[in-house]
């Protein structure tokens, strides 16, 4: 497919993307691929889809093969019914989906870039399959374990949805289903620091997918797993001192919660041997608010693997 959108200065950018699908353990993952060069997997956050990456992918595709994938439970990927033990939407299962997608495309070793929930899946993928991930970039997060171990009033207020969505009594699904459009808008309202707004066509895609059958239950299960089985996996790795060995780049919004409340690079150095990072003049959705700057940082980071080769 061909995607057109306005880039910096109002110019029209044409990004050539080919739809792809893979299936692992009975779950079909939807995505698209474009560009040429060393492969880069791009993973989105909540409540978005792979469409969020288009402004950044346009730049990356000049030098890399970009794979934009919908996570399990999101976009046009399958949304299986959650298992009671949380395993269906464990980051381990979601990471295996993406590993299988890249393998189906012939990529045995690749870089991963994730934002928000996608960054948490990327972190797990790099832990579970270090032979496949040669570089990791995480946008606007610190590790899930660190977040839950440092809950305070500011975190509980800003990230109230973590605790709301993690309820396993059916309440979040019922309340969100009563007015899903209002809930969806609330995830973006007030989270822009004056940069580029969310592309209306991208937002329409987020809404279409969020309103699709099973999406609310699946995305809620994502958070329920994060507060249970994911924490078990993360704590076991942390206690065993299993750290990421590949280079890690952390980017965060200078006007968002993460940058204001954590020394982001210092936190990641507890979990990764080679971590560095920088803030971006944006809020949480930095890849859409400041795509040129994000792409610039990613291109420089990804170019280092080619220099090393």
From TrEMBL:
- Entry annotated with the keyword Kinase: no
Q: Name one GO molecular function term.
A: hydrolase activity
The AB hydrolase-1 domain covers: 39-289
Please give the Gene3D superfamilies that the UniProt record associates with this protein: alpha/beta hydrolase (3.40.50.1820)
What keywords does the record list, in alphabetical order? Answer: Hydrolase
Write down the superkingdom of origin: Bacteria
Q: What protein name applies here?
A: Alpha/beta hydrolase
Q: Which organism is it from?
A: Leucobacter rhizosphaerae
């Amino acid at each position: 497919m061909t995607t057109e959108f306005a880039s910096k200065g109002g110019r029209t950018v044409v990004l050539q993307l080919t739809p792809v699908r893979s299936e692992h353990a009975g779950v079909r993952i939807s995505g698209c691929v474009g560009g040429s060069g060393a492969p880069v997997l791009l993973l989105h956050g909540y409540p978005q889809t792979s469409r969020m990456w288009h402004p950044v992918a346009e730049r990356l595709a000049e030098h890399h093969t970009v794979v934009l994938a919908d996570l399990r439970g999101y976009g046009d990927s399958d949304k299986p019914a959650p298992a009671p033990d949380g395993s269906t939407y464990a980051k381990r299962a979601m990471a295996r989906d993406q590993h299988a997608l890249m393998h189906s495309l012939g990529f045995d070793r690749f870089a991963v870039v994730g934002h928000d929930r996608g960054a948490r899946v990327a972190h797990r993928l790099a832990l579970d399959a270090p032979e496949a991930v040669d570089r990791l970039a995480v946008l606007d997060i610190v590790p899930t374990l660190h977040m839950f171990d440092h809950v305070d009033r500011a975190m509980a207020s800003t990230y109230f949805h973590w605790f709301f969505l993690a309820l396993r009594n059916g309440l979040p699904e019922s309340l969100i289903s009563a007015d899903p459009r209002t809930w969806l808008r609330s995830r973006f309202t007030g989270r822009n620091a004056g940069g580029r707004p969310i592309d209306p066509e991208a937002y329409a895609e987020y809404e279409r997918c969020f309103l699709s059958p099973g999406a609310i239950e699946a995305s809620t299960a994502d958070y329920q797993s994060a507060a249970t089985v994911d924490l078990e996996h993360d704590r076991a790795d942390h206690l065993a001192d299993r750290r990421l060995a590949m280079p890690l780049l952390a980017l965060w919004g200078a006007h968002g919660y993460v940058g204001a409340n954590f020394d982001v690079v210092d936190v990641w150095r507890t979990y990764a041997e080679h971590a560095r990072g920088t803030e971006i003049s944006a809020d949480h959705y930095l890849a859409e608010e400041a795509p040129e700057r994000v792409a610039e940082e990613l291109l420089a980071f990804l170019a280092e693997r080619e220099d090393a080769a």
